[in-house]
Each structure stands twice: as structure tokens, then as C-alpha cells.
Amino acid sequence: MIEGPAIILAGGLARRMGGGDKALLPLNGRPLLAHVIAQLAPQAGAIAINANGDPARFAAFGLPVLADPVADYPGPLAGILAGLRWAAAAGAPDVVSVAADTPFFPADLVVRLRAAAADACAPIALAATPDPARGVARHPTFGLWSTALADDLAEALAGGTRKIVAWTDRHGAATALFDAPGDPFFNLNTPDDLARAQMLTDAGS
């Protein structure tokens, strides 16, 4: 079943990758963003890309491009706010976010985020994986967000909040635990990470 809207967070500066558009780097002959879209499309309805600068560089994907509504690249919370406002304008009660540099996220991400939010009666649900040291490790760029929180998030950003969990913890975010083997939220931050991702796709993993 196709779910509601989703936004791909591609607004970062990719400093550890040498700058530029990390989402457009090639992975197995296609832009990294194409892999993310292919993984997300069966799980979502409308999809938008959060990115800054000239939107024409994403024209080949045929998706709306939403710039950060806050200046000076304040981080992924600004992209989430862009997604919240876009989804709210379409009358959607919530929006799912995924990161543009994480191509192997679960095929059941959205349904499990929705289940976690519903079970906890929470306005936010975040993905997490087991962590030997901390119990669980949250992956807060992968979340389900109620559009009713848009104004609250805008105020938090204006007040200097930048860390996602610093804001989500105020709202009692639910957790969707993904405990299958492997690292489904492996994200590509460096050229070595990109090489590892190429090895994974070559191996069919």
C-alpha cells in the first residue's frame, strides 16, 4: 500500500566527501539519489528533494526540490521543516524523511515508522538499530513527522536548535527498531564509504 508523502534530505554540504552534491555521486552506474528514490518510491506517495542552490541540477529526477526555509545551512532539521510545510500544504497529516546518502535503508521503513508512532500515540517516530554500548542507536534523519509540529520546529530553529534529537526528545518520539543483520542505515560520508557501498552493490547485498 502506498503511504503518504516523503522528503529526501540532500541539503548537506558534504564536506567529508570533498563538497558538492553527494546525492549525485555515481554508485553502480547511477546517481546515489537514484538508488534512494528507488528504495523509497514503493513505500511513499509524493516525494520531494530537500536541497539548496540551483534546483535544475535535479531536473532529471522529475521531483519537486525544496530549499531550506532557514538560512546558513542549519542542518537536517531545516530540511524536515521544508518537508513538513510542503506536506501540510498538500493536506497531509505527516511526512517521512530519509537521508540522500543512505541507499540501503529498509524496504519496510515507512510501515514500521507508522506502526511505532501509532502504538505510542506519538507525533514523531525515529528509526533505530541495536547498539552494544547504548542499547539502541537512533537514526534521526529517518523519521515520521506530524505536520502539526511545523510551527514548533520553526521556533526551535529560530532559537538555535540544530540537533534533531534535542528537538524530538521534547515531543516523546517513538522508536522503530530495525534489528535485522547488517547495517541498513550505513551512510556515505567519505570516499571510502562510497567504495564500500560499491562493493556491497557489486555483491548484491
Structural overview:
The protein has 205 residues and is of the alpha/beta class. It has a single domain (6-202), classed as Spore Coat Polysaccharide Biosynthesis Protein SpsA, Chain A (Alpha-Beta Complex), CATH 3.90.550.10. The chain is 30% helix and 21% strand. Strand 7 and strand 8 (135-146) form a beta hairpin. Helix 2 (76-89) packs antiparallel against helix 4 (150-158).
Q: Give the percentage of residues in beta strands.
A: 15-25%
Helix content: 25-40%
In CATH, the topology is named Spore Coat Polysaccharide Biosynthesis Protein SpsA, Chain A
Going by helix content, strand content and strand pairing, the class is alpha/beta
Uncertain runs are: none
**CATH superfamily caption:** Spore Coat Polysaccharide Biosynthesis Protein SpsA, Chain A
Q: Kindly provide the radius of gyration, computed on alpha-carbon positions and rounded to a whole number of angstroms.
A: 16 Å
Give the CA-based shape: globular
Number of domains: 1
The beta-strand count equals: 9
Count of runs of 4 or more consecutive helical residues:
6
Q: Overall mean pLDDT score?
A: 92
**How would a textbook summarize the main sheet?**
7 strands, mixed
- Secondary-structure element series: EEEHEEHEHEEHHEH
End-to-end Cα distance, whole Å, is 25 Å
CATH top level assignment: Alpha Beta
With strands numbered from the N-terminus, the spatial order across the biggest sheet is: 5-4-1-6-8-7-9
CATH architecture: Alpha-Beta Complex
